[in-house]
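Lab meeting, item 3. Inverse folding demo.
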């Protein structure tokens, strides 16, 4: 019973952080292992519960998207296609051999967040609508490819790159990022389900707690905006970077 309560609390916390900054997997994966979940079911079960939270965040952030529906549909389709391509590539090249990429990209995201003049250099000036849309499409495709291939920090990358290169404010970028992150995750979830590599009952139960955390996160994010999202993204970037440095060294 104590283990179940602990896992439920961790899933709620992960949903909260993931809804605003990404990186919830840093909490959910070790929590599932500590709970005693069969490692063979770990990734699939985690994908189910986290996808439920991400979808909830995307729905609750919908009024902050402020982007043409046609563009959102195109971005979502690109995320689906390129995440599938990334998953296919991961079967040809061992992702573990490319973890150093995370140590380069994630600190770069933190740099943009910490140094507002770099993050806002695009947002502060008027960006032509067609240029912004083109940058969003490129961002969706490249980050989804990375998400399907390797994964860690993809939600954070979506938010940072959409802010930097598309001229969106960080709350709007976070809202769009939730949709794209869900789309790039859903392929992986169906893949794990097809293999029977998901504890569906546990995934659904923990998904409910992830939804709770995501709902709280979006509620606070809408009211605090950049004041809460910016420091959380910096924290997540630091945590992911340290984890992968540790993995490479040890």
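The presenter then showed the designed sequence:
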């Amino acid at each position: 019973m104590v283990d179940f309560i602990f896992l439920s609390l961790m899933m709620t916390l992960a949903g909260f952080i993931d809804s605003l900054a990404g990186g919830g997997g840093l909490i959910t994966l070790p929590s599932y292992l500590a709970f005693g979940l069969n490692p063979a079911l770990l990734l699939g079960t985690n994908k189910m519960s986290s996808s439920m939270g991400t979808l909830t965040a995307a729905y609750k952030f919908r009024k902050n998207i402020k982007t043409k529906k046609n563009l959102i549909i195109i971005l979502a389709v690109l995320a689906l296609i390129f995440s599938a391509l990334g998953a296919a590539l991961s079967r040809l090249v061992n992702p573990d051999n490319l973890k150093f990429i995370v140590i380069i990209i994630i600190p770069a995201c933190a740099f943009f967040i910490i140094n507002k003049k770099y993050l806002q250099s695009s947002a502060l000036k008027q960006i032509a609508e067609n240029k912004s849309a083109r940058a969003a499409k490129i961002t969706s495709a490249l980050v989804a490819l990375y998400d399907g291939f390797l994964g860690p920090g993809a939600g954070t990358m979506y938010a940072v790159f959409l802010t930097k290169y598309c001229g969106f404010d960080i709350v709007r970028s976070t809202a769009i990022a939730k949709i794209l992150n869900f789309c790039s995750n859903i392929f992986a979830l169906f893949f794990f389900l097809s293999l029977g590599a998901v504890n569906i009952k546990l995934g659904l139960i923990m998904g409910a707690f992830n939804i709770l955390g995501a709902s709280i996160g979006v509620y606070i994010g809408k009211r605090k905006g950049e004041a809460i999202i910016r420091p959380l993204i910096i924290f997540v970037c630091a945590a992911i970077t340290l984890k992968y440095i540790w993995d490479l060294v040890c």
